[in-house]
Amino acid sequence: VDKFAKERFNPTGTDVTELPPKYRDLEAQVDRIKHLHESLLKLTANYQKPHYDYQPALSETAKDVAASVREGWSNLIAGTPASPTGQGKEEIAPSLSHAFGRAARTASVGMDGQDPAMVALIKFADSFDAVGETRLKMDAEVTKQVHTPLQLTLNTTLAYAVKARRQVTMVRLNYDSARAKLKAAKPNQEEAARAEMEETEDAFVQAVDDAMNKMGTVVVNGDMLRSLTELIKAQLGFYKEAHEAMSGLLPEMEELALTSDALKNQTAMNQQTAAWLSNELSMQLGLPSDDASPMALLVLGMGADEAAEYLM
By C-alpha distance, which of 139, 156, 166 is closest to 43? Predict the structure, then answer.
């Protein structure tokens, strides 16, 4: 303990063996690489989490839990095994895009198949589901090509280098202790003390060489750059496919929106014309407005010009 304290608070003390500059340089490089590995692992771990890009509504999560509990009790009472696939319950959408697609598809249920709004909702749902599937593919690629190799490196070559550095620390303490003992040894103890010092010195030199070799392996290893390259590839693939899906969807949605607006305008115009015809028929034929309305609709079927001529 005294030795550790003295080295920490008096690193330039003469009784502490200095490590080679190259060793110190390798230590700094390995520390940076290790920190980057740990940071990237924390970030890429998100790709293994479900629906990490949005927070499901509390009610949605509660429904999922409640469905699981009900299914468990029902199976327990009936004496049947639980469903391994969780059939009978709606799972939480695995991505924000899937959630958008599900919302649009649900809204389209029961709508007229010829309605532009329904057509638009289905196209929207299909495109966003496709983007969601692309994102899941990216998640799998990042996990396989980036996260797993980084974890392997952290647990092997980096771990070996860290362990070797700890060994250097221990044998250096033994070596410095043996040097101090030799320095303070009495004449009749000097031979034994010198032998101990030489033995610990050999162990120290060997430990330093071993640690430098292992740290050098970490520094020259190209796994980090390969992992970053694979991350870029996965991201690029996702954004490219998402761009293609959205680029194809946008003009279709714009066209359907124009069609929907035109139909709404035509409906409004028809309603105004029907009201006008109903009023004209009521005045010319002396009919109550309620009786004139069906006739107005019949006349409306002739077209605006024919209806006007009919009333002349």
Answer: 139
